[in-house]
Write a structure and sequence with these properties.
The complex is a heterodimer of chains A (about 675) and B (about 400). Chain A is α+β, with helices and mostly antiparallel strands. Chain A has 11 helices and 38 strands. Chain A has an 8-stranded antiparallel beta barrel. An 8-stranded antiparallel sheet of chain A has the order 24-23-26-27-18-19-20-25. Chain B has a two-stranded antiparallel sheet. Classes of the chains: A alpha+beta (about 675), B mainly alpha (about 400).
Chain lengths: ~675, ~400
């Protein structure tokens, strides 16, 4: 059950995220801005421009008053917890502790050390990845030694459950561009304050991490990876250690980012750029999260259970013309504690910049007779039988990390209803009716963001050299093979399940010469598979580089088909997997004498220099003097080695350097080494 | 004289940065004596000494999560590995000073120097059993030295005191192991500062990351370096035992004998032979260039200058160190520059002054007498490459 297990350690606070936005192109699904970059070829648009002119163009304002590079041209991809602390801990469904006197872990500071963010699809919205060196909990009163637990590297976290409509009334303190009116006042392209997203990762804690080895013990009292609670200081940590000793393989860390938006307007940034400043404009926002035990064979980046999907919209008093939906949620039954828990961390909307919960009336988790799979769940008028009521206020939300538990030990009718296949879960608002319903299946992959290299002409994905190469890759995200996890109302299905797989082409989203026109995804291919336990799926995209979205549709899913507008807008509700196919370039005929810095700059560095200039801040890669030194070449050779793909130090941080270009760059680097090192 | 401060300052920031300066000075001093000794190891023991490979000189944050070239995973630790790790420690301490908004520190002591924390003087000396014993002592965790009845500690005390182990008692009063203690205190100060940081430290300062890195330095010293030096001391590194240090013939011992001399001209302890002195002077100029580059790189967060500094080491200083020792029987002098390593009043003037230092080095290298004895592997293009790289950024 992972996240839903106990103990749970709930954290709250603020964060700062500093993505480079030079290649974003679009602002949200259906909302295209200036096309600056060709994500398929991984090149800047407008090769006829000189570099100086391109940068000037990027740092200038478009016809609506937004920066062409969008709100953070000089973002360096860093991601920091700025003020995150443990707010509460939970030892059981109704055992919430808020007091430091009762658990000295409360008040501890929490950090994600050396973290970076990286979009799988720079033009998309779902596939943000977080790579980090360690999770750190600094609790001098609760942990031995120096009072810190510095974890092993967390797995790559990926976006789950993006919610565009988390805040009903607040997007940004600045103005939004309006095509109907000329630009005036301070305008931003980063009106993301209304959105939120959940990330999740697993973190290994090995048995030896719970004690000091004798050889260390003599000399070191604060060794890394060590999770050693002070005696009788923290019931939550004690319980966590007991779970690990009992077989848990580590921690699962699920966190939700919300009310996150940049603090400098595009209008102001343009003025600073004009003055020659290379100003970064990180977004700052809130975080709520939960740390819980993680068990062997559980996915790392998602918690599986009983999925609840949007059934119907609710009314937003601030924007009456637009439909507002909740985002999906996951619930799970705990037979041990006789309770059902639902993760609403990303789900229930807020109203205003202080994060107060929006009034949806009384929110009830219940069950009802299941929806006919051929019908819109909004048409299901079956009565919802309540299981429990969600206390929908900010303080409760923060206290429980957005996870609400409902015990049913003394309600046998609930227990049997939950086991009855003729029932589905529902989340009902007293004002707006059933907002979330439970489809028959929850399907997901633990590897939602993937990369492949377009094979050379004449080769297919299944040719032995390509297959061998994929099999050798250091991370599942690079192998072209994903797992498919499936549960039927929280349990493994008893029989094979028919799945339809759709492949959508998602890039490009715009037209370089046609400002504001959004290109919706196109359906490339549809195929079928029969799901069985340990199901794998080989990503074999149809022609060309670019972004693909795979939509997995189990039998009885509603709707079976969606159109291009819905896949763009509502992919966040679907079981999707993203794949970025990086372009093939034929450099096989490049002679050694052609392997010059100028050539490498044009083929490799120019894109980063113009689109993500923060990468040139610490070291300007187009500086010829750097490349006269083997040291830089050695470093680039090491940093571009895909063995280190999950390291925050991997180059490029954007992880969009194709195999062909990487090998070209590595060839160039090797040519700079002394002969003895070139082999 | 370095001593581990109890609480010289009430202010935790001043206390922390003071200790970091101590650590930088000590790391630099140790680095110099380690390199000097390493260069004295005979060619037949180059597996112990280490050799320059592609994996060498990787400028990156060390630690358990650091990217390590695959070829480095399996190979045994060499003396060169240890010195590179010392360089990384020095780099990390300076990077931390930078991130704490303090000035870097590339200074070190002149030798011989008596540190209060060691029962012996530090001196630039070729490797022998005494030197191996002092290095082992320097890196030893307190617990390893605590058991005075153990054969190992008895032998170590006997060696570092040159046969007067009772003299060592005076120094055992220091609570904890010396170098590790220093980092232990730095970690304590960092923890203290974390609770009430000065407003000029950025809110995004990565307290945990730095705590972890400092812990890693301590670990590396007390575990990896200690084990390596102990293997030198007991001779096992050379696939022998301690008797290798007392082999009847000097040629049978692992390292050659060198007497430290200065490359400054006209001093009582100057290297007498002029071409050799000039070659050693060239090594000084390159060593100082390296330090000046590092100083500026930390002040300006310019990674390129770190690469240029590493180039001074890999393209020139390494070969000079080996040739000076083995062809000319002169240890690399590592003289202390007579000014601070922050040469100019701002970035532009510092770069301009470093340029003059490089030109001076090139001139020495082109001297007829020196050119005739330059190491064949020394890359004379280094000077021009360095000059090219000194152009200001942006």
């Amino acid at each position: 059950m992972g996240l839903f297990d106990f103990p749970r350690i709930h954290i709250v606070g603020t964060h700062e995220v500093n993505p480079g936005t030079g290649n974003n192109n679009s602002a949200s699904p259906g909302d295209e801005l200036t096309v600056t970059s060709d994500s398929e070829r991984v090149q800047p648009i407008g090769f006829d421009k000189s570099d100086v002119d391109f940068r000037r163009w990027m740092t200038g304002l478009d016809e609506l008053g937004m920066l062409r590079s969008q709100w953070n041209y000089y973002g360096d991809m860093s991601f920091r917890f700025t003020d995150v602390t443990v707010r509460s801990v939970q030892l059981g469904p109704n055992q919430l502790i808020r007091s430091h006197a009762q658990d000295k872990l409360i008040g501890a500071s929490v950090h994600l050390n050396n973290a970076i963010v990286c979009d799988n699809n720079p033009e998309g919205f779902n596939g943000t990845q977080v790579f980090a060196e360690a999770l750190e909990i600094h609790a001098p009163d609760a942990l031995q030694g120096a009072g810190s637990f510095v974890s092993r590297p967390p797995d790559r976290a990926t976006t789950r459950w993006l919610n565009w409509q988390r805040n009903v009334s607040f997007q940004t303190p600045f103005k939004l561009p309006d095509p109907a009116k000329p630009a005036s006042g301070e305008i931003t392209s980063g009106a993301a304050g209304a959105a939120s997203a959940t990330f999740q990762c697993g973190i290994k804690v090995n048995a030896e991490d719970l004690a000091l080895e004798p050889s260390y013990e003599r000399v070191l009292n604060r060794s890394r990876f060590k999770l050693r609670p002070e005696e009788n200081a923290s019931p939550a940590l004690d319980a966590l250690v007991a779970e690990i000793r009992g077989g848990a393989c580590g921690l699962v860390f699920r966190y939700n980012l919300y009310l996150t938006y940049p603090r400098i307007s595009d209008t102001e940034l343009a003025k600073r750029f004009e003055r020659g400043e290379r100003a970064a404009n990180p977004a700052r926002g809130h975080i709520v999260g939960t740390i819980a035990p993680w068990y062997e064979h559980e996915p790392s980046t998602i918690t599986m259970g009983r999925l609840l999907k949007p059934a119907a919209p609710y009314a937003n008093q601030y924007r009456s013309k637009k439909q507002f939906f909740l985002s999906p949620a996951v619930a799970t039954q705990n037979t041990k504690t006789q309770s059902i828990s639902i993760d609403l961390a990303n789900c229930l909307p807020e109203d205003g910049p202080d994060g107060d919960k929006y009034n949806l009336g009384k929110i009830t988790l219940g069950y009802r007779h299941l929806t006919d799979p051929k019908k819109d769940p909004a048409t299901n008028t079956a009565t919802v039988e309540p299981i429990g009521t969600v206390t929908n206020d900010r303080e409760t939300y923060l206290d429980c990390g957005g996870i609400y538990d409902f015990a049913y030990a003394d309600r046998p009718e609930v227990r049997s209803a939950l086991d009855d296949d003729n029932n589905e879960l529902a989340l009902e608002s007293s004002l707006y009716g059933v907002l979330l319903y439970e489809p028959e299946y929850m399907l997901a992959s633990d590897c939602t963001c993937n990369y492949l290299d377009q094979p050379p002409p004449g080769q297919t994905w299944d040719d032995p050299p390509v297959k061998d190469y994929l099999a050798q890759q250091s991370h599942p995200a690079l192998t072209g093979r994903i797992d498919l996890l499936l549960l039927r109302r929280g349990k493994l299905p008893a029989k094979e399940v028919a799945i339809t797989v759709e492949e959508w082409r998602q890039t490009p989203t715009g037209f370089p010469g046609n400002y504001g026109v959004y290109r919706y995804p196109t359906l490339q291919k549809r195929s079928k598979l029969k799901w069985s336990p340990n199901q794998k799926f080989d990503l074999r995209p149809t022609d060309g580089p670019g972004l693909r979205v795979y939509r997995f549709v189990p039998e009885n899913n509603w709707p079976q088909d969606i159109d291009e507008r819905d896949i763009a807008q509502f992919a966040i509700r679907e079981a999707i997997v993203e794949l970025r196919v990086l372009p093939y370039d034929d450099y096989s005929k490049v002679r050694p004498d052609e392997l010059t810095l100028d050539f490498i700059y044009q083929q490799v560095f120019r894109y980063y220099d113009l689109i993500t200039p923060a990468m040139s801040e610490a070291m300007d890669l187009k500086d010829p003097s750097i490349w006269k030194m083997p040291t830089a070449a050695r470093y680039v050779l090491l940093s571009t080695n895909t063995d280190f793909w999950t390291s925050p130090q991997y180059m490029p941080r954007t992880r969009d350097l194709s195999r062909a270009r990487r090998e070209l760059l590595q060839r160039f680097c090797r040519s700079l080494l002394p002969p003895s090192e070139q082999a | 004289m370095l001593r581990i401060k109890e609480n010289d300052y009430d202010d935790p920031y001043l206390s922390l940065t003071g200790l970091l300066v101590d650590a930088a000075t000590l790391e630099h001093s140790l680095l110099s004596i380690y390199l000097y000794a390493m260069f004295s190891i005979r060619e037949e023991y180059k597996d112990v000494r280490g050799e320059l490979t592609r994996a060498t000189f990787q400028p990156q944050p060390p630690g358990r999560n650091a990217m390590q070239p695959p070829e480095q995973h399996k190979s045994p630790v060499t003396f060169l590995d240890v010195t590179i790790e010392e360089m990384q420690h020095l780099a990390l301490v300076n990077q931390l000073l930078y991130e704490l908004c303090a000035a870097p520190c590339l200074e070190r002591h002149t030798f011989p120097h008596r540190f209060e924390i060691y029962p012996f003087e530090l001196q630039l000396r070729p490797l022998d059993r005494f030197v191996a014993a002092t290095f082992t002592w320097i890196e030893a965790p307190a617990a390893e030295l605590a058991d005075r009845s153990s054969d190992f500690v008895k032998k170590l005390e006997n060696e570092v005191s040159r046969g007067k182990p009772d003299d060592v008692k005076t120094f055992r009063k220091v609570n904890g192991d010396p170098l590790g203690s220093l980092y232990g205190r730095i970690l304590e100060r960092l923890d203290a500062l974390r609770h009430d940081p000065p407003p000029f430290i950025p809110k995004t300062f990565a307290w945990g990351v730095w705590s972890d890195r400092l812990d890693w330095i301590r670990y590396q010293g007390e575990i990896d370096h200690f084990r390596f030096f102990r293997s030198l001391f007991d001779g096992t590194a050379f696939k022998a035992n301690e008797s290798i240090w007392t082999a009847p013939s000097l040629e049978q011992r692992p390292a050659i004998q060198l007497e430290w001399k200065s490359a400054f001209a006209g001093r009582h302890n100057s290297i007498e032979d002029e071409p050799k002195r000039k070659l050693a002077w060239l090594s000084n100029l390159i060593y100082w260039t390296l330090l000046c580059l590092l100083d500026l790189s930390y002040r300006t967060n310019n990674r390129k200058l770190i690469y240029v500094a590493i180039e001074q080491m890999s393209a020139a200083l390494w070969w000079l160190g080996l040739d000076l020792a083995h062809k000319h029987n002169v240890g690399i002098p590592f003289d202390v520059m007579l000014v601070r390593y922050n040469l100019g009043r701002d970035e532009a003037s510092t770069l301009a002054i470093i340029e003059r230092l490089v030109l001076e080095a090139r001139k020495v290298a082109e001297d007829d007498g020196v050119r005739a004895i330059l190491p064949t592997n020394l890359d004379t293009n280094l000077f021009q490459r360095t000059l090219d790289a000194l152009r200001p950024r942006h």
